[in-house]
Please model this.
Amino acid sequence: MSLYPLRFEPIYQYRLWGGRRLASLLSAPLPDDGPIGEAWILSDRDDHPSKIANGPLQGQTIGRVMQQSQEQLMGKLARRFQRFPLLLKFLDAHEMLSVQVHPGYARAYPPAADGTAKTEAWVVLESGEESRIYAGLKPHTTADILRQSVTNGTLADHLVSIVPKPGDGVFIPAGTVHSLGGDVVVFEVQQNSDTTFRLYDWGHVDTKTGQPRELEVDQALACIDFLDGAAGLVTPVVETETPVERERLFHCDPFWLWRLRGELPFAVGAVDVPRVLVCTEGTGQIEHRGETYAVRKGEVWLLPAAVGACTFRPSGTVNLLEIAIPPKPESSQDSKS
Model:
């Protein structure tokens, strides 16, 4: 059968640093109790596979579609990936996440347990007076300084601190020390990896176990890229203003991401490659081959390569994120233009 625009159900994740604010962002109800820190909205992972929520393929996983209809799904990217290469999430960081590092491909880093590097990026959706994002190290910070600061509790003094506001884009290349929290909600796009090394945890105690979480200081220090200057706030690049304002936020080897804002119909998707749409505000409809697909706030929609370009018709003003998998690796992982 021909593929069509695919919607996926969120997968909620307990996190001790989470809250309950994802209830106002997504239509699917949160579990009854406990802090929910993450909603995985597109995941091709064995432990948490996303399931299709609409149409004839309802109940099928993204992994099964990758296996059975890869040409239709991925187009000219077919056979390049064994799994869908991106993992998409919403995060509700009521308290601070651990200070952590994700591994990269470079030979100096230990390889990820699943063989995949983890570059990621955040789009800030909500923030408060106490919200903070840490992304990267201050100049002249060394491994010895970090190891000592973990011991004496002064690690934050050596991190680049950002006071986030809604709309900010923050780039976190693999090897970057990072954290966020203080009532901040973000959308996260990342490579399909779940490998994290925890450097510092702010004294958190997991209420489920009554114990602090384990640190992985040696592995984290081995992962850090002490020279990378690409991390941090990005400057949006406006590519079009009508019929939709289209800003490019991230443009790196693993993913490209644009923010679209408008109230008139506009084009989404592309010929012979997949695209992902995430609605962060408002509602609308995807129009494809005479069919319409209602889109609500907080939903993720995958436009298979076979769908190609189609029309998005807003109901009032809408904010969308559109995400692409680059057709081939570029020479630089610089996200800023």
In short: The mean pLDDT is 92. Residues 143-152 form the longest helix (10 residues). The CA atoms of residues 73 and 304 lie 4 Å apart.
